[in-house]
Amino acid sequence: KVISDIIVSPFDLQNQVMLAVPTDLPEVNSPDGEFDGATAGIVSEMSGVVDGGLFVLFTSHGALRRVAKILRAEGSNFPLFVQGEEARSRLLEGFIQHGSGILLATASFWEGVDVPGRPLRGLIIPRLPFRVPTEPITAARVEAIERRGGNPFREFMLPLAALKLKQGFGRLIRTRDDRGGIVILDDRIVRKQYGTYLKESLPVTPFVKGPWSDVSHHLRQFYSGL
């Protein structure tokens, strides 16, 4: 049985955060690049709503680079800070100093990054943060669980994804004055049975799901009240 420890937040998340999931995007594993294009489109639209100030947290460097390429080709209205193009500290410093940037990152930016106040006003998570099963350490753990008759997904992959998701969620609200929306583009969190576990591992906040046009409308209302 999978068990999740939920720590009560010291923040007023009912008023500080909105969690949103669009349900009409292409499949996250679409081979034709449609999901990357949709991701770039939502990054562009949401950055316009909040005047920049976005973190976009990816699970792979490949997806990060593809979305960055699309945004640049289409002409972003806000400066892009792309992990891998500068040192981590310089990226973060530039993002904070500018105040209306878009930071595209993966790996270490899911945790241990503190950007309180106005520079960070929104968070987009394109894909649920499951580990790649073929990574050597992950593959070894999966094999060990299978050998003893366990369920690697429920016992290992799912709890780790929940932890990573909570860490990503935690990037947005660092003080009692922070406000912002969190958009998860991977609708498996509302479509798959295991998505309930992932969603319930997050703090309780106002939540909307539906076509992006509806979600966008709710986000605009949320930000207009800040």
Could you explain how this protein is built, in words?
This protein is of the alpha/beta class. 45% of the residues lie in helices and 13% in strands. The chain contains 9 helices and 7 strands, in the order αβαβαβαββααβααβα. α2 (34-50) crosses α3 and α5 (136-147) packs across α6 (152-169). Mean pLDDT is 90; it is low at 1-6.
Keywords, separated by commas or semicolons:
226 residues; alpha/beta; 45% helix; disordered N terminus
Indicate the topology.
Elements: H1 13-16, E1 17-22, H2 34-50, E2 54-57, H3 61-74, E3 80-82, H4 88-98, E4 102-105, E5 122-125, H5 136-147, H6 152-169, E6 180-184, H7 188-191, H8 193-200, E7 207-210, H9 212-224
Parallel strand pairs: 1-6, 1-7, 2-4, 2-5, 3-4, 5-6
For this structure, the quaternary state is: single chain
Low-confidence stretches: 1-6
- Termini separation comes to 40 Å
Q: Average pLDDT, to the nearest integer?
A: 90
Q: Count of helices?
A: 9
Number of strands: 7
Major sheet summary line: 7 strands, parallel
Structural class: alpha/beta
Radius of gyration: 17 Å
Strand content: 5-15%
Helical percentage: 40-55%
The shape is globular
Instruction: List the helices and strands in order.
Output: HEHEHEHEEHHEHHEH
How would you summarize this macromolecular structure in one to three sentences?
The chain is an alpha/beta fold and 226 residues long. It has helices at residues 13-16, 34-50, 61-74, 88-98, 136-147, 152-169, 188-191, 193-200, 212-224, and strands spanning 17-22, 54-57, 80-82, 102-105, 122-125, 180-184, 207-210.
